[in-house]
Fold this sequence. Notes:
89% of the residues lie in helices and 0% in strands. The chain is mostly helical. α1 (2-34) packs antiparallel against α2 (41-87).
Amino acid sequence: MKPNMKACGQAMVTAMVNAVLALALMLLVEFAISGTFHMADPYLWAGLLIWLVIFIAQFWRQRHLCRCGAERDGEKKRIQVNLVTRENGG
């Protein structure tokens, strides 16, 4: 369960940063076109959709990376245990 929580946290941070940057870019374009910083509802929906898509993709990616890292760490520990027992004559 811990790798899932770690992946969720990292995915949430990545998605939030990207969604905020996308909203800022949309507001900048709105200001360039109309001269006002009017936060329209479609901008909020677009930001939410961007957050959701990036969160799902990053969560899947981070979960895969955490699992591979955990498996790799497990293999290193098994190899170290085997080496220690062989050196001790066991």
